[in-house]
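Revision sheet: structure tokens.
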Amino acid sequence: MSATATAGTRGLALARRTVSGVVLAAIVLGSIATVPTFTLVVLAITLLSLWELAGLTAKKGQALIFPVAAIAVATYIVLAAVNLQHAYEKTLLGLTIIASLAFSLAGERQGYFARSAFTVFGVLYIGWLASYFIALRNLPSVGAAFVTASIVAIAMTDIFAMLVGSSIGRTPLTSISPSKTWEGAIGGFVATTLVGASFALVPVMHVPWWHGALIGAITSFAAQTGDIVESALKRDASVKDAGTILWGHGGILDRYDSYTFGGIAFYAALYITGHIPSTHP
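Predicted:
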């Protein structure tokens, strides 16, 4: 293939990624306007991600029990939407474990443990973690601002890690994802820490700059960890992408891998810095 053709292919791929990325961002950011619309979007993302994860587990020989996992994931999201997440999340986990063990009996004898374990993992990895985005949105008065800030922080981590890594990256970060570099990881971390410090400029958030910097740093570290974890899942299943639903991006899970850990990390950072009271449900 000629250099011109290769450049044209890369340009087309970049255009596809840009278009689909802008559309996705518009949908997600627009949905933040109300708790119900944001809940519906998060619910759609989590269930599609779970479907892709089920495909990955199937490639390992034993697919997770999708109906059990889907009901549990949806329940985590709904509980968060009605502010009952912390009251019932442990109970839901217990019921999920019992259901996964019971329904796994319907499959082959070989692989029983894998089916049930994959099911519980899928529920926690997809549903429980994502529910903290809803918990952020439900924070009185500041919910919309904080959930928007969390999405921006995670997006900046991804963007600057890619920009810095592609321009000056030389040192491999991990063999799990060979394209990632230490330079890119540091670039994403520093950029997001600075973005976090800029939260002090948003009056409704009431965040001192150093609190914001800490929140940004914690979120960036978690987001990059989430990205690597999803890469490890794909490598273990011997696939390049978790799915093909997104034009130019692969699957839903490929696009939102950084958000799995990033959302709950942002929530935890707010709690650590005292911006979520200990009495909040």
